[in-house]
Amino acid sequence: MLRRGIHNLWGAGYIEVDENGASNIPGIFAGGDISTGAATVISAMGAGKRAARAIHDYITAQK
């Protein structure tokens, strides 16, 4: 269901995100394997950290 709203998919269904893990839908973030494909654990952890910071900023701005 959610996949229908995410217009920026590439390759085998990976979600295209910006450098902060934000998708083209406001409030929807992704990181790690779903946005880059298989990578190292260190890379996935970094993506998760960046996305968490962006999610925090997004939620804080909504208040």
Structural class determined from secondary elements: mainly alpha
Shape, principal axes of CA atoms: flat
Tell me the total number of β-strands. Answer: 2
Mean pLDDT: 81
| Termini Cα gap | 27 Å
The radius of gyration over CA amounts to: 12 Å
Strand order of the largest sheet: 1-2
Q: Pick out the low-confidence regions.
A: none
Number of helices: 3
Query: Share of helix among residues?
Result: 40-55%
The largest sheet is: 2 strands, antiparallel
Count of the separate structural domains: 1
Strand percentage: 5-15%
Order of helices and strands, N to C?
A: HEEHH
Question: Your description of this structure?
Answer:
- The protein has one domain.
- 48% of the residues lie in helices and 6% in strands.
- Strands 1-2 form a two-stranded antiparallel ribbon.
- The termini are far apart.
- It is flat.
- The chain has three helices and two strands.
- The longest helix is centred in the C-terminal third of the chain and has 22 residues, at 41-62.
- It is mainly alpha-helical and 63 residues long.
Write the layout of secondary structure elements.
Blueprint: H1 2-5, E1 9-10, E2 14-15, H2 33-36, H3 41-62
Overview in brief:
The chain is mainly α and 63 residues long.
Which terms summarize this structure?
single chain, 63 residues, mainly alpha, two-stranded antiparallel sheet, 48% helix
